[in-house]
Design a protein that fits this description.
Strand content: 25-35%
Structural class: alpha+beta
Shape: globular
Order of helices and strands: EEEEEEEHEEHEEEH
Strand order of the largest sheet: 1-2-4-11-12
Low-confidence stretches: 68-72, 112-117
CATH architecture: 2-Layer Sandwich
Radius of gyration: 17 Å
Mean pLDDT: 79
Largest sheet: 5 strands, mixed
């Protein structure tokens, strides 16, 4: 996990297998292919969290309930760890909302794969099943397709900025990501209350 600070704002870059939760001004960002990032938020407590998980590199039967499979265990763990951390710092599980991203098929079509699904497809099915089973309201999604995504999640207005990518050109991506982060900071300044510090 990479943490950058600018004034009172933080930018957290999350890698696969990581998560972060906060009630402070923060922008969380990650790069997704077939992985999933769940962006959760409690709009009352203003606590946000993001994870980044790849369920498994195995294939699973299309007609099997994903939340009961070996693949589901990885996703369930990633979701429960994030939810528990958010609750630990003051979020209410009953108020949680979700925006979910990723699950791309970046290695070509899966048609003709018989009774099996690719990782991206399994991930998309899993996150829908999990949120429905846990009664977490899904407010936005951008799942599937054939392009990777860079996403930025802001706790100022709970917005998620999505940029779809085909080829990663690291310097250009880094420059654009930083510009997006700075723009989000400006937006957050308008929604965050002023803080008075007592000496």
């Amino acid at each position: 996990m990479k943490i950058e600070t600018l004034r009172r704002f933080k930018r957290i870059t999350i890698s696969p297998g990581e998560f972060y939760a906060s009630g402070e001004p923060v922008m969380m960002t990650t790069l997704l292919g077939s992985c999933i990032a769940a962006c959760l938020y409690d709009p009352v407590a203003r606590i946000v969290g993001m994870n980044h998980f790849l369920l498994s590199n195995h294939r699973y039967a299309r007609n099997m309930a994903v939340t009961l499979s070996e693949a589901g265990r990885y996703g369930v763990q990633a979701m429960e760890i994030l939810i528990n951390e958010m609750m630990r710092i003051g979020a209410s599980r009953k108020r949680l909302c979700a925006k979910v991203f990723g699950g791309a098929t970046i290695l070509g079509s899966t048609q003709g794969a018989g009774n099996f699904a690719c990782v991206g497809e399994v991930n998309c099915r899993f996150i829908h099943e999990f949120l429905e089973n846990e009664n977490i309201r899904l407010t936005a999604e951008d799942l599937g397709g054939e392009k990777g995504r860079v996403i930025h999640f802001s706790n100022g207005d709970f917005a998620v900025y999505v940029r779809k990518i085909k080829q990663i050109q690291s310097e250009r991506v880094a420059r654009r990501d930083r510009e997006c982060w700075l723009k989000a900071i400006e937006s957050q300044e308008l929604t965050m209350p002023d803080v008075d510090l007592w000496q």
